[in-house]
Design a protein that fits this description.
The protein is built from eleven helices and nine strands. By secondary structure, the protein is α/β, with parallel strands linked by helices. The strands form two sheets. It has a seven-stranded parallel sheet, sandwiched between helices. The structure holds NADP nicotinamide-adenine-dinucleotide phosphate.
């Protein structure tokens, strides 16, 4: 224990009828007492911090295995949704797949039966448009009667690109209607059912976001808007469902090799937008993620009770840069997040300098060149 004392000079306020003075006086404090006080304060702060985080992680609402659990997937007939259906069935779950096109759903179910050789009664298909409240309500209620839900994945989504001054009203309606309103409608029907049984039946809710929930998808303003909104919704649900055994996970896949990626690419007709979007989102079709890997990671996040999942390094970095007030998934991640905040922010500024440069250069030079050649 270090010995010695520290002299602390304090100024005490003193006043007479005419004036106010500060009278200095000195007290001597033992060095050992100061160290003990600092030690006790640090221990108290750490214990409070750890306890509050442990409480917020809701370990009581985890689903450790998907064996014989009922997994419901909106947008389950293709891409990421279909891959999740296959993976869940491979892990022994019962699966309900919801999408608009019945023929596509039936073909997907056949594909799964052929590939996995699983029992037919493990798959339930429902044709419904998430934008139609009556239709999704019937699909969800009937599926719940088939089996109560253990996991529901709100995955149905569409996307296309256009500058905001040129986007069609139909496109706005479809993207917002499917990605946002459709998710809200599905939740509105499913949540009361899940809440009612939640005291004896832990369940999980997964919202499928995107890198566009954390970073602007250049040229995809409407898509970005819906995916940012889903992040807000997920965070709100984490608080709202705290008293229930319903875990909330928000999943942000990177670029995934699916039909939607092709549709998104095809919708970009402006060459300047194509070039800028590719550069500022660091997009390369060759490096697109595999839907099977995304499905595996998503279901692992569910069984581990994780509240956030980014399937690539870009998403993990962006999540660190945009972390809100809600706690990280584990104590280690909370500490790591705090340590890497500063370097991540410096890196983020370097990236955004590059992004600004790409946008300026392309719009100042190429747009003018394209306009001039069109005028000739
Ligand atoms: N692919 C990517 O790069 C990527 C990246 C990040 C996030 N995501 C997200 O992942 C989710 C799935 O995308 P994906 O790439 O797998 O797309 P996908 O292959 O095109 O699949 C979309 C699924 O949603 C269904 N669907 C579309 N509109 C619907 C509606 N109104 N009602 C009900 N079902 C509807 C489709 O079936 P029907 O057409 O028959 O309805 C299909 O089953 C989306 O939320 C997307 O935003 C994708």
């Amino acid at each position: 224990m270090p010995k010695g004392t520290i002299a602390i000079t304090i100024r005490k306020l003193s006043h007479t009828f005419y004036s106010v003075h500060l009278i200095p006086y000195t007290i001597e404090v033992e060095m050992a007492d100061i160290l003990q006080l600092i030690g006790a304060l640090s221990i108290a702060v750490s214990i409070t911090f750890i306890c509050s985080l442990l409480l917020l992680w809701k370990p009581y609402s985890r689903i450790p295995s998907l064996k014989d659990k009922h997994v419901v997937i909106t947008g389950g007939s293709s891409g990421i949704g279909l891959a999740i259906a296959k993976e869940a069935l491979a892990q022994g779950a019962y699966v309900t797949m919801i999408a608009r096109n019945l023929a596509k759903l039936e073909a997907a179910a056949q594909e799964i039966l052929h590939e996995l050789q699983c029992e037919k009664n493990r798959i339930n298909i429902k044709a419904a448009d998430v934008r139609n409240y009556e239709a999704i309500s019937a699909a969800i209620n009937e599926s719940f009667q088939w089996r109560p839900f253990d996991v529901i994945l709100l995955n149905a989504g569409v996307g296309s690109a256009s500058y905001m001054d040129k986007v069609s009203i139909e496109s706005i309606d479809t993207i917002v209607g499917t990605n946002l309103i459709g998710t809200l409608y599905t939740l509105r029907v499913a949540l009361p059912l899940m809440k009612e049984i939640s005291y004896r039946h832990p369940s999980a809710l997964v919202l499928v976001g995107s890198l566009a929930s954390l970073y602007p998808a250049y040229g995809g303003g409407v898509y970005t808007c819906t995916k940012y909104a889903l992040r807000g919704l997920a965070e709100n649900l984490r608080l709202e469902l705290l008293p229930y055994k319903i875990a909330v996970s928000f999943v942000c896949p990177g670029f995934v090799e699916t039909a939607m990626l092709t549709q998104m690419e095809d919708s970009i007709v402006d060459p300047v937008m194509a070039e800028v979007a590719r550069k500022v989102t660091f997009y390369s079709r060759r490096r697109a993620e595999n839907s099977r890997d995304v499905a595996k990671a998503t279901l692992k996040a569910v069984t581990q009770g994780r509240s956030f999942l980014a399937t690539g390094w870009k998403g993990s970095l962006l999540f660190i840069l945009s972390t809100g007030i809600l706690p990280a998934d584990s104590f280690a991640k909370a500490v790591l997040g705090m340590i890497v905040q500063v370097p991540a922010r410096v890196f983020g500024y370097l990236i955004i300098c590059y992004v600004y440069a790409v946008i300026w250069v392309n719009h100042r030079t190429k747009t003018i060149i394209i306009k001039n050649s069109a005028d000739k």
